[in-house]
Amino acid sequence: MERVNLTHAKAHLSELLNKVEEGREVVITRHGKDVVRLSPARQSRQPIPLAELAAFRASMPRLRRPSVELIREIRDEGY
Q1: Which of 6, 9, 38, 68 could form a disulfide with 26 if both were Cys (CB 3.0 to 4.6 A apart)?
Q2: What is the pLDDT along the chain (79 residues), one digit of tens a residue?
Q3: Positive or negative torsion for Cα 25, 31, 35, 41
Q4: Among candidate residues 17, 32, 31, 24, the one with its CA nearest the CA of residue 2
Q5: Alpha helix locations (H) across the chain?
Q6: How much helix, strand and coil, in percent to the nearest 5, is found in the chain?
Q7: Is residue 67 a contact partner of residue 73, using CB atoms and an 8 Å limit?
Q8: What are phi and psi for residue 13, nearest 5 degrees?
């Protein structure tokens, strides 16, 4: 893990981001104290295909009464 001070980070931000894209971590310090850690972003999850989502919704049991009534009841009970 590389440590750089704030002045260096401001002057070389693109270079630091390239290192992070390669999978490395960089810590930026101010007055010798760690302030922030730059690390690679997690990869986003794959979207769920619409057909699978529709099948999941269809498998859910139906409410016996409108959801607005249920929400009001919970609210009125003080939860």
Answers
A1: 38
A2: 999 999 999 999 999 999 999 999 999 999 999 999 999 998 888 889 999 999 999 999 988 899 999 899 999 997 6
A3: negative
A4: 24
A5: 6-11, 13-21, 50-59, 67-76
A6: 45, 20, 35
A7: no
A8: -60, -45
Distance spanning both ends of the chain, measured CA to CA: 47
How far is C-alpha 17 from the geometric centre of its chain's CA atoms? Answer: 19
- Amino acid identity at 65: R
27 three-class SS: strand
Q: Which domains does the chain have, with CATH numbers?
A: 2-38 (3.40.1620.10)
Name every residue whose Cβ is closer than 8 Å to that of residue 49 and which is 6 or more positions away in sequence: none
